[in-house]
Design goal:
346 residues; alpha/beta; D-Maltodextrin-Binding Protein, domain 2; two-stranded antiparallel ribbon; 11 helices
Length: 346
């Protein structure tokens, strides 16, 4: 397939773009030739032709492989988008009915996967079986990098500056809890909350200082001039929760983390932090409208629907929805509860 060229413009082959993308992602012509099942000399010839048509160097070749130039990097991101759109267009042309089909890449952090992953996959599979949902689980910093590189259609991040060129909307707010095993002797059985000063005295198993959640926790500890003294720093959620389960210490996480070792949250105690409850905002990032396929728009809307259902049914505990996502019944119930609380305090 050729990209139509106007007067004075180049005529670019989509096959060349596919080859170019594979070379950039492989980091070498040799690896790319094996992935593409094309001889390396022929692949080099195609890249030389592409660079000649563009009129700019696209690849830097060295003894350690190849890497894109600044122009090549720009072409890579646009080519990825064009190839994804082409794949979806071909899928539409080949389908035999009006069913919606396509592939959507969604990035989720480990704690979000614990609570949202399975319900969302099941929901979409039942309602839109033609949509293939590719869930990428990674730390939020890596997800932000992938989002900026157009490698994700949607992602959930914990700040509103992760990828400024994408559409951003608030998804939910998570409360952070001190989590210990149900039989832990670190905290008295009658306690349901802890002051931050008391939390600092516990042996803590936390993510590394580079982790977004650790930075959020550190801000609160610095506010009371207390230093965090972690007994272990672990960026793997299952391993971190396994260490806590084994009695190594307590951790500070959203309540969804209690599902990391299986659907048995009753094995854990989640204690609120009194005085200054810690929360973490969740934002939904989506490709801008002009890059958004119909499938991406569907997944975006269904994700918000599943989140609202999980929260309002009580399945997703320790979180709060933005007002615009809540059903009228939920808003009315919350308002009534607040009024009852004010009346009881009066």
């Amino acid at each position: 397939m050729l990209i139509d060229a106007g007067p004075g413009e180049t005529e670019m082959d989509m096959r060349q773009l596919r080859y170019f993308v594979q070379i950039v992602e492989s980091g070498s012509l040799a690896k790319a030739s094996r992935q593409l099942f094309i001889a390396q000399p022929a692949l080099s010839q195609q890249m030389a032709r592409l660079e000649d048509e563009v009129g700019k160097a696209l690849l830097v070749r060295s003894s350690r492989g190849v890497s894109p130039t600044e122009n090549g990097d720009a072409l890579y991101h646009h080519a990825k988008f064009m190839l994804r759109q082409l794949e979806q267009a071909v899928g539409v042309a080949r389908r035999e009915c009006v069913a919606i089909t396509g592939r959507v890449a969604l990035g989720l952090a480990p704690t979000t996967v614990c609570r949202l992953g399975l319900p969302l996959v099941v929901h979409l599979r039942e309602k839109y079986p033609g949509i293939v949902l590719n869930i990428v689980e990674a730390l939020s910093g890596h997800l932000a990098s992938m989002a900026r590189a157009d490698q994700l259609d949607l992602t959930v991040l914990f700040n509103h500056t992760g990828a400024s060129d994408l559409t951003i909307e608030p998804l939910l707010d998570e409360e952070l809890f001190v989590i210990v095993p149900q039989d832990s002797r670190l905290v008295a059985k009658n306690r349901t909350t802890l002051r931050l000063e008391d939390v600092a005295k516990l042996p803590l198993v936390l993510p590394s200082p580079e982790h977004g959640l650790r930075k959020r926790i550190s801000v609160e500890f610095e506010r009371i001039n207390v230093q965090i003294d972690a007994v272990a720093e672990i960026d793997s959620l299952p391993l971190l929760m396994s260490c806590v389960a084994a009695g190594m210490g307590a951790t500070i996480k959203p309540m969804a983390a209690t599902l990391a070792l299986g659907a048995s949250p009753l094995r854990w105690r989640c204690l609120g932090i009194s005085g200054t409850p810690m929360t973490r905002a969740n934002y939904l990032y989506t490709l801008p409208p002009h890059k958004r396929s119909n499938c991406v728009e569907i997944v975006r809307n269904e994700l918000k629907h599943v989140v609202r259902r999980l929260v309002e049914s009580g399945e997703w505990k320790g979180v709060k929805l933005p007002v615009e996502y809540r059903s009228p019944r939920a808003v009315a119930a919350e308002t009534s509860a607040e009024m009852d609380s004010i009346a009881s305090d009066a």
